[in-house]
Amino acid sequence: MTTTIYFSSNRLGEVTNDQLQRVLDRFDLGRLLSSKKTAEGVMGQTLYLSSTAGQFVLKGNPLFSGQWVEEKFMVEQLYTRTRIPVPAPYLVDDTQDIFGWSYAVMPRLYGEHIHTPELQAKLTSPDKQQMAERLAAVLLELHSWKVKNSGELDTTTLGIRPFATSYRTWLYERIRYWLEDAQKYSDITVQDMEWVEEMLEGSRQAFDQLEAATFVMGDFKPQNFLVQNGKKGWRVSGLFDFTTAYFGDGVADLPKITTMYLENGEKEMAQHFLAVYFKGLNAKEGFRERFRVHMLHQQILNWGCAKAMKQVTWDDKLSFAEWAHTFTDARGI
Question: Fewer CB within 10 A of the end CB, N or C, for the chain?
Answer without folding.
Answer: N
